[in-house]
Amino acid sequence: MAGLLEVDRVNILCPDSGIRLPISRLYFCRHCLKLKSGQCVSHEVDSHYCPNCLENMPSAEAKIKKNRCGNCFDCPSCRHTLSTRATSIAIPNPNDPAKPTTKKAYYLACGFCRWTSRDIGMPDKHIASGAWQVPDNPYVDRESLTVFSNMKMGSFVDQGRRMNELLDYYRQLAQREKQERERKRISRRRSYFHLQEKYLSQVSTRRRSGALLSALTNLSVKESEQNQNLSVKGSESVDDVEKLPPEIYNEPVNLASVCTITQRLSQPEYQPHYIKQLYPKHKHLLIKRSQRCRECEHNLSKPEFNPSSIRFKIQLVALHHVPEVRIFSIPNLYFQQESQVTLMLINAVENQTKVTLQPMPSSDHDVATASVTLPGSDLVLAAKDDTAEYDDMNSDYPEFKDDPSLVHFRKANKLAFFVKVTPEKAVGDVIIALKVKYNYRDMAAQFRRTDEDKDQEKEPPIVWLEYECTINLGKLVDK
User: What is the model's pTM?
Assistant: First the structure.
């Protein structure tokens, strides 16, 4: 089936954002009854977790640790997860130096590229969760960039003075912009003072005016303080550039020992030149996010809190609510010759759905490169039944009176039908555009009822919805 794996060939137009996406990448809001893309929803971070140890982390702690796990590490060479290996080493016995004793030692190793912490001279640890040592941030003192000192990788303290200055500067700048927005909002409220003096009592007017003036005074004081502290030293250019070492001109380059661009950019604070200067990095945290409709502010997608769970509490994917159009079979397509293409409709809900297909006018779209002749009557899709997929005996559906000239076959909630396509462009892909209208049982209508209507038992109303669909049928065949 051409449309099962190649989902990008059938795209649906999102009415709000105006982009075309496959049905598997769209959401359906049951309250607005509209299709939503990733650009039409609000994204909210629910939790942070490590993809390796699956440890949950609060947002405040993740911010302090710079969104990195304190126990897991990435290989600096290939970016895979490092594992802790145990080995036995011989150490001298303090009681009898002639008889050495064995002791366990732990080091980091990559199971993919065979990189180990011993390759860069990191000492082994005597505990599995030992404090692995890495060089200090060289931007602590800009006058001595080549001085390194050992530090524990668990201490996520940014010691870069220059970075701290820039962070403080932009933090003050953001605070200043926030105060300016607050001052403009309060200044708009001052324009209604004459209405307050006219219709409110003198006590309430005096109280509100005093509170507003005190807020403006605080804002002006904070703004004056902010203007005094809002300064940062700009970057300065230097004329003395460190010369290249003579080994670059005298000795051949060993590409196996030189870092790649990706390896260097993965550690911007060190900028290592050689493989022996690579140090393990703490693993980045991942997030679980929920997506909310911007119009009605209802959740469209909300995962479970447990990091090891892949289920969703709420998952309103359009694939589960909207009839899906797929490509079943495509014949050879020739320029300005009519061909018969077989498409398929799949019902995603547990009730019968009527679908009406209409061609898009040429003035409404500029994507289609072929004209299409669609069935003139409604196509009725059977209700979705999970057990019908395994029922091979019941292949006839007498309750549906299908026209053999329009319907190819019917099985469970699937219906294959014929359309006639005539390519109108001699080059490029053959693309058809059509409008799909279908009836939908509005199950969320009960949440919008008034108190009087809730006492009466009513069936969910049926509404007619539509969406625009483009189907890429592939290339033309030369005669």
Answer: 0.70
